[in-house]
Each structure stands twice: as structure tokens, then as C-alpha cells.
Amino acid sequence: MSEKLYTKSRKRVIEMVEVSPRDGLQNEKRDVATIDKLALVGRAIDAGSRRIEVTSFVNPRAVPQMADADAVCADLPERDDVIYIGLVMNMRGAERAIATGRIDQLGAVAVSTDQFAMANQGQTSDGSVEACRDIIASAKETGLTGQATIAASFGCPFEGEVEEDRVIAMATAIAEAGPVEIALADTIGVANPAHVERLVTRVREAIDPLPVRVHFHNTRGTGLANVWAAISAGASIVDTSIGGLGGCPFAPGAAGNVATEDVVYMLDRAGIATGLDLEKLIEANRWLSGVMEKELPAMVGRAGGFPKPDMKSKRERTNA
Ligand code: ZN
Question: Residue 265's CB: how many other CB atoms inside 10 A?
């Protein structure tokens, strides 16, 4: 295939972070076997994913689905070219993640409002910023990298609207600790593209030259539009989940992450490279649908890509 040429002609590359093994699965009631989580990681890698949030190191009583964090880490594929992220909420989690010897990057979470921060991790919003900075520092001290996500950047399930200035202040404070990037997360799926464009632009200016990552849930159907708005405003990294699995324990009715295959389809068709293989993602969707014993939310997973391979060859034949 003329894959090289194709990439050469494309102007932009967006990095995708696969979060299905953690965010995708963590709110699923079905207890997914460790071996299936590892197979999901393997399929993501096979589809071209090079940064994967593999698990979280949290209290197993709070998040039973992540109780096998150590077992998942122990059997992760040995790949020098793949960055494995472990999500942690505090220093105890950071120590556990580091102790596995298999996590390359610590993901920390700050929460934009006090009420959500209390519910999610038992601390104030300011406390969560401090925890982020400590986690990033400990990652760097041990030769790992650290990144941070500002949860509920676009709206809070308890306090409603979130001031943009608050998010900017948090991003600025976290940036001082030296993360590889800062993410804006629409944890409960309330963002709209105009808000996304504005906030991504402002945060980008505030933390320059650090990149901005975005994390959207498709709860109200604005997920893909928000990804597009974020990219237009200069975000360069997008969290996605194969099949569009996921939810939020604090947001009733919250839908999953934007689906990897839906985002890859959109960007592929728009001439933006992601390094991911759509057909392999669709295969992964079918496999995961079997594991979960239900149809997954991703739309391209159901409809397939376009044009179909046989259409392509027909066109090529006509051109020849
Ligand atoms: Zn999420």
C-alpha cells in the first residue's frame, strides 16, 4: 500500500490515547477477566495504538473492576514502543503503580469543583491540584513521566457550570510540576463545541509549550463535534475508547468515551493522520462486543468504514 505517501501528504497528526481498558471498563457492571483486559490492550497495540491507559490504582472497594491492576501490569506485552499509563488519585496509588515496574506514565486527576473532588477522591479542588503536582513529581523522580487530567472542566455533576478562569488557574499550577501534557476532561458529557474551542485555546495559551489533551464523553451526542472543535483549537492528543464503552459513577446516564473507531474514521476522512488502522479497530469492536455480550455504542463499529475495500478496488480499476 502507498501508506507512506499517504502520510506524507497529510498535514496534521493527532495522537490518540486508548483508554478503554480503564475508563471504558471501569463502570461496566460485568466483571471483565484480566485475560480479556490484556487481550484488549493487545488489540489496541495491533491497531496501532502507542499510548494506552491500562488500569487505575485505586481502592478496589470503590472500583471493583480495577482490582486486578497488578495482575494486568504483570502480563502487559513487552513493547519498548508503547507507553503504558496507570491512573492514580494519590501518592499511595502512585507508589503501587511505580512498584509494578511496568507503568511508564502516571496519570493524575484534578477536579474543577470542591463537591466533585470530595466525592471522587475525598479532597478539595485545591487539594486535588496539590496531589497532581506531587504525583507528577514522584513520577519524574522515579524515571517515569507524569500527565494530568482536569476532570469536569466543562461542567460539574454537583455544582453545575464551571468557571473557565478556574480551569486556567488549575492548568497553570499543574504545568509548573512538569507534566508531559494537561488534559481537559468533559467527565459528564456536557460540553459543546464553542465552549471547547474557547477553553482549549485559553489553556493552550496558558501552558504553552505543553500540549493539550482532550477527553470527551458522548453523553449528549456532542462528543465528535467536541473532538473536532478541540483539534481546530490546537489540541493535539485525544483520549478515546474502543467501542465507546464507559460512563461516570457520579453522572447518571453518562455515556462512554468518544469511540476510537468513530474518531479515527472522522480524522482519516478529513486527511488527519492518527496512525491507527480502522479495520483493526472495527474487528476489536466486534471482539469486545462479544466479551461484553452487548452491542457497543460506537457507530462506525456498526456501520463500518467508507469506502469499502471492494469499492476502492473498483475505483482503482476504473482509473487504470
Ligand atoms: Zn472519562
Answer: 25
